[in-house]
Structure formats: C-alpha cells, structure tokens
Amino acid sequence: MADHHVGNLVLTDLVKRYENTDPAARPAVDGVSLDVEAGEFLTLLGPSGCGKTTTLRMVAGFETPTSGTISLDGADMLRLPPNKRPMAMVFQSYALFPHLSVFENVAYGLRIDRVRRARLEEAVEIALTSMNLTGLGERFPHQLSGGQQQRVALARAMVVQPSVLLFDEPLSNLDAKFREQMRREIRLLQRRMGITSLYVTHDQAEAMSLSDRIVVMNAGRVEQVATPAEVYTRPASVFVGNFVGRASFLPVSGVVVRGGRGGVSVFGKEVEVAADPGVGSSGVVMVRPESVVVSPVFEQGCGVVRSAVYLGAGVDYEVETDQGTVLASVGDPDVGGLLEEGTKVGLEVDASRVYLLPRGGGGGGCLASCWCSPPLAEPGPRCAIVSMPCPHLSRR
Ligand SMILES: Nc1ncnc2c1ncn2[C@@H]1O[C@H](COP(=O)(O)OP(=O)(O)OP(=O)(O)O)[C@@H](O)[C@H]1O
C-alpha cells in the first residue's frame, strides 16, 4: 500500500450554481481556487452551508461545476466520471455495504478492478491490520461499533491506493472521546502513507489538529488559506478570527503612517503597528482569551465580571468593559481563586498576542510592541503589556 502515487490537486475558479436556485443569489461555491500539494492534508472549514461539501463533491465527480477547472498532476479531472478518478472518499455515514463482510467491504474496489486473488487478499489484510481491524474480517457492519465501521470505511478507501483521499465529515457520528482517538489515527495514517487529503469539517478543533493547512470558507468563498497556527494567530478577517477559536474584538482608532509603521490606540494606550495592515484610519483588534490576564488584586476595576464558567482545567470569564466584552481564559482557578460575577477587575494583555484586523477583512498587522502613557522608563518595544486604562496601571 505504500507505493501509491501522490497527487497535486489544483482547483481553479470553481463555481457551482445549483439548478432551480435563485439566479440573483450567490452560487453555492463562488470562485474557489486551491492548490493542494502532493501529500498535503488540507481541510475545508466553515459554517453550515458555506460550500465545503459541494466543493468536495465536485472534486469527487458527484457534482458538475458550473465553471472552473479541477486537475490532478496536470490531468483534467472534469473529463472523468467519479469511478475513473484516482480518488477515494470517506463518508460521514460510513456507507458500508450491510450485506458484505468486513473483508468484502474492504475488497470491493479491488474486485471491481479485477485484482488477482492472492494480491487482493494480501492488500486487504494489510489494510485491515493498518486500521487495527485484525481478526474482524468475517464480521458484518452491524456487528461493529461506530468507530470500527469508520475504520472499515477508511481501509476500503485506502486499499485502492488513491492519489487523493476525500473526507466528508467522517467523524461527526462518533462520540467526543472516540473522535479524538480517530483524529490521531487518521493523522498518523495519512502521514505514514503520504496521501494527498482533502477533508471537510465544520469543527475547528478537528481542522486544527489534523491539517497541514486550513481553508476557511464563508458563503461560497475562500476567506483564508493558511497553517492552523496562522489562521489562529493571524486571521485574515474578523470572520476567520471568530470562527477559529474564541476571541474578543475591540474597536481601535489610529493612523498608519511612515512606510507602514504607525500607531493605533488600544485600551487607551498607543500601540505600535509593526507591519502595514493597510487599515487606513480605523480597525479592530483581536485578543484571544488565553492572552488576557484578569487581575482581581487591582484596587480599582476597569471591567466587571459578567460570567464565570468553571471548566475544571480553567475558568472562562466574560468581562464587561467600556470597549466591549472581553473574554478571558484563566488556566488555574486555584491561583487567585474563582472570581464571582459582579467583581470589578483589571485586565492585562500581552501586546505580542494582540492582532490588528481591518474592519470587513483584508490584511492584518501584528502589534509587535507598544508604549505606555505615561511613558515607562524604557518606552518602545520593551513594553510588552497593553493595559486597560486603569488608574492603578499608570503607577507602573
Ligand atoms: N442539491 C442541491 N440543490 C440546491 N442547493 C444545494 C444543493 N446542495 C447544497 N445546496 C446549497 O448549497 C449551499 C452549500 O451547501 P454545502 O452542502 O456545500 O455546504 P456545507 O458547507 O458543506 O454545509 P454543511 O456543513 O451543512 O454540509 C447551501 O446553501 C445549500 O443549501
């Protein structure tokens, strides 16, 4: 199974407008271009209805694009029916044949390809072993757990040595704990075999843990293509920042000046913008909850705890401030104790973790440093804290 051909899958300006839909409405897929590198694990992530499944089904050949192209290693895939495309798909519903044994389910594609018996038996055994299904070949799907059925579906997809594996939300029918285990197994298997993989999910944790790169989609379009770390820390738009993880978005005002360097005001302090975010005169900063420190020891509050949710490993706070609601995740509730709703608190944020977004999308700039007012002894890049304008903080 190891010497399959890996594929470079390229989608260019793909559009899908379903028949009988309002011609004035946006197409289900509205100009998607992607380059999935050979051996890459690429995930389409986005809310329900954003066009992920339609994109995947066009790649598989189950839907015909209204326009655009799909090629694999330079070969036009649109000329080929689904069964002639060197791809295999794993479905959410497993789609096993109920009347066939596990062995025969996995062997199905090889039988269609008229693979000789000895070779077929060897390939199926290897596939079953690699999916931890040894000894289950004689069982029928109804005699297996959901996770085992999904493993059979994976073995069936891999045994035909596809150039591309397509996954349509394959883990959404599994319970949470099992889903995490399957995620790890899929990732390990995909790495080991190096099969180009296109994966669809609306679960951001799944996308983060599986993917080399994530494609965040919104209303039929691509909002951003980047590594999991990039989409999390440097989202291309408020939509992406909001969809991938939790975040607070606070309005800022300021002007970008002099070769892309300049300042904006965050929490009442001047903050230097390292790279030109192209925002003009206004924008929004994104702050992730884990970058915010809630300090109950401050004498005077600049926010009020609106909710405190104890999660075992930490506490999630919502703090109401003049600038809006700020989310804060505190790792260890034993440190400082659990803050009650209504408690006045001060907030601190690591400036290097604050990210400036333009309103309505476009580029973004990372806030590399800040200077505080009144100035510190050493103003400029050494100051790593962006603070709420609390009187006690000006004592620093
Ligand atoms: N066969 C169809 N005929 C008409 N419209 C369709 C058809 N299939 C999907 N759509 C519409 O196309 C849009 C995109 O659907 P699609 O299933 O691709 O989204 P998705 O991102 O995969 O969503 P989900 O996560 O809910 O599956 C939706 O507005 C949907 O209602």
UniProtKB/TrEMBL annotation:
It comes from the Bacteria. InterPro entries: AAA+_ATPase, ABC_SmlMolc_Importer, ABC_transporter-like_ATP-bd, ABC_transporter-like_CS, Mo/tungstate-bd_C_term_dom, P-loop_NTPase, Transp-assoc_OB_typ2. GO terms for cellular component: ATP-binding cassette (ABC) transporter complex. Keywords: ATP-binding, Nucleotide-binding, Transport. One of its GO terms (molecular function) is ABC-type transporter activity. SUPFAM superfamilies: MOP-like (SSF50331), P-loop containing nucleoside triphosphate hydrolases (SSF52540). Residues 9-244 form the ABC transporter domain. It holds the Pfam family TOBE_2. PANTHER family: SPERMIDINE/PUTRESCINE IMPORT ATP-BINDING PROTEIN POTA, SPERMIDINE_PUTRESCINE IMPORT ATP-BINDING PROTEIN POTA. This is Iron(III) transport system ATP-binding protein. It comes from Umezawaea tangerina.
